[in-house]
Amino acid sequence: MKNPVNMPRGLWVKCESCKEILYHKEVRDNLLVCPRCQHHFRMTAEERFDMLFDGGKHKLLFQKVRSADPLGFVDTKSYRERVTAYTRRLGPGDALLVARGEIARRPAIVAAMQYRFMGGSMGSVVGEKMTRAIELCLSRRLALISVACSGGARMQEGVLSLMQMAKISAGLARMRDRGLPYISILSDPTTGGVTASFAMLGDVNIAEPGALIGFAGPRVIEQTIRQKLPEGFQRSEFLLEHGMLDMVVPRGELLDAVVRCLNCFQPS
Amino acid sequence: MATPTLPFLQPIEEVRERLLKLQSEPSSLERDDALAVTKRELEETIESVFSDLTPWQRCQVARHPERPYTLDYINGTMTGFVELHGDRSFADDPAIVAGFAQLEGDPVAVIGHQKGRSTSEKVRRNFGMPRPEGYRKALRVMRLAARFGRPVVTFIDTPGAYPGIDAEERGQAEAIATNLLEMARLPVPIVVVVTGEGGSGGALALGIGDRIMMLEHSIYSVISPEGCAAILWKDQARAQDAASALKITAPDLKQLGVIDEVIPEPLGGAHMDPPTMCRSISAAVRRALKELRRSKTDALLQRRYRKFRTMGRFLER
User: Are residues B199 and B84 in the same domain?
Assistant: First the structure.
């Protein structure tokens, strides 16, 4: 990964979509959306919490859960080294942070992925933290909001990564049985095993504009069918049109949309 | 046989050809002696080749063109198969077969991926790669099974979900996810048998159950060795290394706590002796169903939840 931190920290930033040079603070004040072309920059989990929780106030949960190396996986580098390097640079938490706080003065749990940690890939840690988030919602009767941002399953944990999809989905089945609301927010990109588990299982699925959302990645599809993919294929608006999402909401209106959806399911 | 032989199986093929030639010759004292010797030689050759298969070689056995497919197993283990078609919203997906049958007299629902044998059949079955309507058909039949109190048996053999435009348009991610969620709470016993390739999400969509078994030479993986090699090694030719690193063989999965049981295959693999393979599968599935039937539904579902809840390995500190 050349530039895992999506938003450079200098005084000026260049929009990766319209190439405009922008004043950093102006972008930041605009929830990391380009004021010129409305391109949505990727957010870190902490930035999601700041945006979604009342006053940004939240408490991180399950931060002691850390990656093991169950397969002793080595490709061009060892998995252990990779995880250590990411953790040193980004701090603990792997590719998913879970936090507790209040949204519109009601307690809620937010589970937000971070793409900058190994492409937001889902291994045992992401699966375990997400499942604990669900189980906490079950025991305290809380609403769950997830923010997906992932390249898919973490290959370095092999089939154990695949099984995280099953584990999380089984937890979400219990949310449904107990009548607890779950809102899934999909951001750019949401692909692979994350899409084919919790990202698509929201009682309401909300995507940010222009996000890449799919199961198979566009390159794999192009290689299989040997033709160029149509413009806008696997983007949020495409999925909305094909019935896979409830709404596409610009970041500035996202919190409002979440609150209004939660209100729909609140006991009267 | 028209199918090209895998290089590591070549020694077996050579002896097998000699044996067939001897068998076609008229009986004589000399021939009969040679026949007995060659038979023993064949067994020994198979044994020596198969005692030491690499993960990549197992992967190739799992994909062997003569390997039995789901309909072979249904017909070889069950009677009175009534195949049902269609997801009731879009189409019928021939890459998944589903229906009801009797397993030694006991009614069950049976669902599995289906690959084709001839070229035209392969294309019709999309090489066993389901589209969303396949998963949705499977779920429809599972719900029928639940309504009528029939346990569900699934056979898994797919390279994976179909990476095509239409499959994405119709929401294959949602279809797979919904199956995971619904299978987790389906109120009847589910027994899963991985018979060939357990390819990622397309496999898992039929893979949630109370007992998960793998045939000895089947594989189960988050990504194909070729795909993994292309991404992590930037070189598809490193598939052998990826196959080892990913831990995709039946013994690996048993060790990782993902499956309950490895069903031994006949010497040389399932395709060498399908009737024996069918008997082993039938026995293993019936044994599992007998145990599962003793549980009340709540206990069954609680245990199924725990089973998947405990999958994965991490540290806590």
Answer: yes
